[in-house]
Every structure is written in C-alpha cells, then in structure tokens.
C-alpha cells in the first residue's frame, strides 16, 4: 500500500491551509515545496506589496489573481510621479497592466504625488472599497479639494479613506465631502491622523466632516486642544462627534504636538501651563453618545483635571470598550485605600495607555492591576510618581494576561528599575519597550528591602471577586511603600521565554553595552530590536569608546530584524565647524560592530541636519552596513550618494534595497537629492545582475 503524503489531500483542504497562513515569508517558503503548493499559494494570496522599478512592465507578476489588497506605494524610484516614469507617451499602459494582473483589487495603497495618478488608476478598479494615499512631498498648487475629487468620481463603492501618510491641507476635505453627499454618507472609516500636520483640523472642520459622514464607525483625527489656537477642540466639538456619528466603534482624537513623536521631559511634573477646554460634562456627553465604542484615544496634551469620575461613567456608557489611551489626563485613579475608582473600574479593558499623568501613584497602578483583569497591553509614559514597587505589583497581579509593556519617560523607571519591575512576569512578556537610562546600575539583586507579609485571605469580599485571593502573598515594606513578592514554584522568573520584540530609547552619546547587564541577558526567542535615538550631537564630544555597542546584541541568537530610528538625532550633515563632530564620524561610532550580527532585515532612519533638511547615508554607515553579510532586506529612510549605494551590490545575500524619503518635507526635486532617477536605474540594474544562491 502506497504511503499517504500531504499531496494526497484534496485541493480544497490544501487551499484552506494556504489561506490560513498570513506571514509573507512563510507563504514564500510554502510555495517552494513543489509545483502544486506553488500554484495553490499563488491562487490563495489576497494581499501583496509590489517593489521594483515601475518601468519594467514585463516584471509585474500575473499569477496572483486572487489579490484584493494591492500596495504600490513603494514602487521604485520611490516618490517619483508613478505614471510618468515607464512610458511617458502612454501613461495608461502601466494602469492597464496592473488591472490585468490584479483584477479583483478592492483595497489600494498608492503614492500620489500628482493628481493625474488617481485620474488614471482609480477607473481601473471601479469596485474599490478602501484607498490609502501616501505623499511626503509638499502639496502642489491646486484648487481646494481637487486631489480628492477622483476618489469620489470613480469609486462607487468607497467605504474607507486613509490619509495618515498623505500631506494635504485640512481645508481640502470638507468641501469635497459636501459636494458628494451620497458617497460621503456611505463612508465607514476615515483616518485623518496625518503626521505632517502642524495645527490639525479645526473644530468647525471636524463638525463638517462628521455631519457629512454619519455612517462612520472608525474616525481618527489630528487636531489641537490648545485654547490659544483658533479652532481648538472643545465640548461643542465632542458633542458634535457623538451626535453626528453615533455608530463609532473607534475614535482617536490626537493633538498634533503628540504626533511629533518627540520624547518629553522626564523631570516634568506632568502638568502643562494651560488646561484643555474639555470639561467633565463634555466628556460624559461624548461617552453617552457613543455606546458602541470599543477603542478610544484622547491624547489632549493639555491638562484634563479630576478625570476619575468621568472614567467611571465611561465604564457604564461604553461597556464594549477594550482599548483606551489617555494623554494628559490627571486623577485617572486615586486609589484611596482598597477602593477601586476611575479607570480601574473599566474591567473589560485589554489595552491601557496612560501618558503624562501628573498624579498617578504606586497605589493607582496597583488598583489598575486589581481592576483591569483582562489587561493584555499596558503603557506607562511620563508618569513620574510610579516606582518599581508599584509597577512590580501591578504587573504581577496581571501575570496571567499581560504580554506587552511600554515604560517610557518615567523619572523613577530607568532601564534597571523597569526590568526589575517585570522580573515576576518575564516569562510572559512578548513585546517590551524601555528607556536606556542607566541609573542604578550599581544596584544588585541582593539589595532587596525587608518585607512583611500580608495574607490575601484578609481582604474583603469585593477584592475576592476580582480574583486576588490566591495562594500568593502581597508584601509591604516596613517603610510603607508597595512591594509584591510572588514566586511560581518557589523561584522568581529569570528568563524572558516569550520576548520576541524589544524596543528601546537611548540618548545620543550614551552606550548600548549595559543592556544585557540590566536584566535583558537571557532572551532566547528575541527576533526584533528597535532602537530609537534622540538628542543633539552638536556641541557634544563623541564618546571615547569606539562603538555604540551593537556587538552586544550578538547574545540574542534569534535576532534577525533591526530598526535603527536615528531621525530625531540632530547633527552636522555637511562640514562641521571647528572642534565639532559631523554625522559621518558619529555614524562610524553608531555602526561599529553591526557586521557581527546575523540580520535578515534592517530599517535605518539616518540622523538629520535640520538647517539643510538633509537625512543622508554617510560613507562610514554604508561601509559598515555592507559588512553585515547575512542581510536580505535593507530600507534606508533618507537619501544617499550613488557610489555609497554601490557598496550594497557586493553583499552576497541582499535582495531588496530601497531609499525612501518618507519624512516631511521630502526633497521636492532631483536637484536636492543625491540619488536621482538615473542613479536609481543604474543601482537597480547592478542589483539585478547579481546571482543569489537561493
């Protein structure tokens, strides 16, 4: 009797297996098993991102006939007008070729630098339901709303528009929505969290947008809550949102100052000089009008005081709420005694982020751990009063559910304290962010404070209902501060068994080498590390050490992905003044040792010179990156000279290299960039001529 193999399974079952796999690399590997698997994988893939040069029409794949989600925003040369590159005489040729290759497309992502792109591409797929526009270049001179008219003219089934990475004027959108009332009324998702905004949408514009789109269930808006600005968001605006869009399940209202993504002052007390013009009554009216809300982000950046009672209303009015992020809200949880209050009463939350809360204490964080029993993700940013003891207790209380933590810009929670606070849940955490502030490196694990036990059986019935009464012990130091000591099988966790992604912040000039010492030495499954560096290197002496310390990451055997976000590091891109260190020398310090890592993917945001708006790959950086011989994918979010890019053609395994000027404002024309259209063509031709073993 012949042996039965997986090839004997019916095609229907194999197709379902292929369709259930979402990871792109896993699907690519699956397609290499045999011809049958190859054809099934191609037939079941529904999402694809095209790379390569737009002028090579014959290289557009035609075997992915089931694709519904098409992303062509990263076609090369990146950021150039798409339909003017391959065949200037007939811009329709590329559009027709894409339609033939992907006839079922309903979701499209495209870099739209000129309006002609939408005029030609959108008619190819009249059934489009979702469109995401991308543009980091400045807006062209055109009448208000002219760039959005093709969306409503050609997309009869349009449901969702994403403008989060598209630079435009806020005045462009409302007139178009009013001009097409029927199609505007059909929209269910509108993402207007455009990161390049300086002031965001005004209150009147938000009212007009929500009035034109009553069917929205997802709304994300960049705005301003600062009462010193014209058109700031107030109670009237919140009321209009709730009245006009009662079906909302997701609402993000984010102040534009928060979108700058710059680190706050850790020495700040968390309070700003001005209060937001948002009252308790206004928030209660917002919550009462949105009973279906499941995700809420209110990043106000101006004081919202005494918010605890309002958040208690949130629990009753929005019973389905699972994700909550609050920025500059104070009094979120006072935790007087054992009584739960404020946000700790929102027991259905799965993700909670508290940012710049000036009065959140250890007792408050413990109350959150007691009340939010389903918490999977917890973020703490800019909360100066929370210490290692309070966070340690909170994390241990949520040991069974917590898998993602972010601890940033908290004065008393540097790298050592953050890792110590999580030592009881290390085996549970899968994703972690900490700040590389090396305070307390001299402390050792033996410097534990004396504690006295508190039996949980002595707690009242309310706490017992919250699931606290277990065979564990709370501990209170004799000084009265919170501490928690929980042992599983008698031993505290020492290994990060599940940590797959580590994100860290570090100041320019600091070293990375102490990272394993603080407690991150045993991460057996760590796959990705993200390093964000900020600071001004001007006027700062380069450290005496030869390297930042990337070599210390070799202790993580599964590390394959590295993101180096140095875009907020400022320096001299060109000739530095006498006695100063330019960015080329800093890059030598940053990248020394990267060749020792066995990376597959590298995303790199070069440091910038704001005076000349330049973020460029330097000679030392390109030479040292080229020493990383296992690298397969390299994305540089900046510019580079052509001869620097040629270093990468000598790397034996690299298959995908691209320059993306995805920052605002992107260089407007070739005269301001090092890599021009011809430079891209020569580099890509050199890459394509290489032979790759696999």
TrEMBL record:
Residues 8-46 form the COI1 F-box domain. It comes from the Eukaryota. Residues 673-694 have a biased composition (Basic and acidic residues). GO terms for cellular component: nucleus; SCF ubiquitin ligase complex. Coiled coil: none annotated. Residues 665-694 are annotated as: Disordered. InterPro entries: COI1_F-box, Leu-rich_rpt_Cys-con_subtyp, LRR_dom_sf. GO terms for biological process: SCF-dependent proteasomal ubiquitin-dependent protein catabolic process. This is F-box/LRR-repeat MAX2A-like protein. It comes from Citrus sinensis x Citrus trifoliata. The lineage of its organism: Eukaryota, Viridiplantae, Streptophyta, Embryophyta, Tracheophyta. The gene is CPMAX2.
């Amino acid at each position: 009797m012949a042996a039965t193999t997986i090839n004997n399974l019916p095609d229907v079952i194999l197709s379902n297996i292929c369709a259930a796999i979402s990871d792109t690399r896993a699907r690519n590997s699956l397609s290499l098993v045999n011809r049958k698997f190859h054809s099934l994988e191609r037939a079941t893939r529904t999402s694809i991102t095209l790379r390569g040069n737009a002028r090579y029409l014959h290289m557009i794949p035609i075997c992915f006939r089931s694709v519904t989600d098409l992303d062509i925003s990263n076609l090369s040369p990146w950021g150039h007008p798409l339909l003017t590159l391959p065949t200037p005489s007939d811009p329709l040729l590329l559009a027709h070729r894409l339609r033939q290759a992907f006839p079922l497309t309903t979701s499209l992502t495209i870099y739209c630098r000129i309006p002609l792109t939408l005029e030609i591409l959108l008619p190819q797929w009249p059934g489009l339901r979702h469109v995401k526009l991308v543009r980091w270049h400045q807006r062209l001179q055109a009448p208000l709303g002219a760039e959005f008219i093709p969306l409503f003219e050609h997309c009869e089934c349009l449901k969702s528009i994403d403008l989060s990475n598209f630079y435009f004027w806020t005045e462009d959108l409302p007139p178009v929505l009013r001009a097409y009332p029927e199609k505007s009324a059909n929209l269910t998702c509108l993402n207007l969290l455009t990161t390049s905004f300086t002031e965001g949408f005004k209150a009147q514009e938000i009212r007009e947008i929500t009035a034109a789109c009553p069917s929205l269930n997802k709304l994300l808006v960049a705005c301003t809550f600062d009462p010193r600005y014209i058109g700031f968001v107030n109670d009237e605006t919140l009321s209009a949102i709730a009245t006009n869009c009662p079906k909302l399940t997701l609402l993000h209202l984010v102040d534009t100052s928060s979108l700058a993504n710059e680190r706050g002052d850790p020495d700040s007390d968390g309070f700003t000089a001005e209060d937001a013009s948002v009252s308790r009554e206004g928030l209660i009216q917002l919550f009462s009008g949105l009973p279906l809300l499941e995700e809420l982000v209110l990043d106000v950046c101006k004081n919202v005081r005494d918010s605890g009672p309002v958040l208690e209303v949130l629990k009753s009015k929005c019973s389905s709420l699972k994700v909550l992020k609050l920025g500059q809200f104070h009094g979120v949880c006072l935790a007087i005694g054992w009584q739960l209050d404020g946000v700790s009463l929102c027991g259905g939350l799965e993700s909670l982020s508290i940012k710049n809360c000036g009065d959140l204490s250890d007792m408050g964080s413990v109350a959150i751990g007691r009340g939010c029993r389903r918490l999977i993700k917890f973020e703490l940013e800019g909360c100066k009063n929370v210490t290692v003891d309070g966070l340690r207790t909170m994390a241990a209380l949520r040991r069974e559910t917590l898998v993602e933590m972010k601890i940033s810009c908290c004065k008393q929670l540097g790298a050592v304290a953050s890792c110590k606070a999580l030592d009881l849940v290390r085996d549970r955490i899968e994703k972690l962010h900490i700040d590389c502030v090396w305070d307390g490196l001299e402390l050792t694990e033996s410097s534990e404070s004396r504690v006295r036990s508190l039996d949980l059986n002595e707690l009242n019935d309310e706490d017992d209902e919250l699931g606290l009464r277990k065979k564990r012990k709370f501990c209170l130091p004799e000084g009265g501060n919170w501490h928690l000591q929980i042992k599983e099988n008698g031993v505290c966790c020492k290994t990060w068994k599940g940590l797959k992604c580590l994100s860290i912040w570090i100041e320019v000039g600091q070293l990375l080498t102490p990272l394993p010492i603080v407690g991150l030495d045993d991460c057996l499954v760590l796959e990705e590390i993200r390093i964000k560096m900020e600071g001004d290197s001007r006027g700062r002496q380069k450290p005496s050490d030869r390297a930042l310390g990337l070599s210390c990451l070799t202790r993580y055997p599964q590390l394959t992905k590295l993101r180096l976000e140095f875009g907020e590091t400022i320096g001299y891109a060109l000739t530095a003044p006498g006695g100063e260190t330019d960015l080329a020398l800093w890059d030598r310090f940053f990248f020394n040792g990267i060749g020792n890592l066995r990376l597959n993917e590298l995303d790199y945001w070069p440091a910038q010179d704001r005076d000349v708006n330049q973020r460029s790959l330097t000679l030392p950086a390109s030479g040292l990156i080229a020493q990383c011989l296992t690298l397969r994918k390299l994305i540089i979010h900046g510019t580079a000279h052509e001869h620097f890019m040629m270093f990468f053609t000598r790397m034996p395994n690299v298959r995908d290299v691209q320059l993306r000027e995805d920052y605002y404002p992107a260089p407007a024309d070739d005269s301001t960039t090092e890599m021009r259209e011809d430079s891209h063509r020569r580099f890509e031709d050199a890459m394509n001529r290489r032979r790759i073993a696999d």
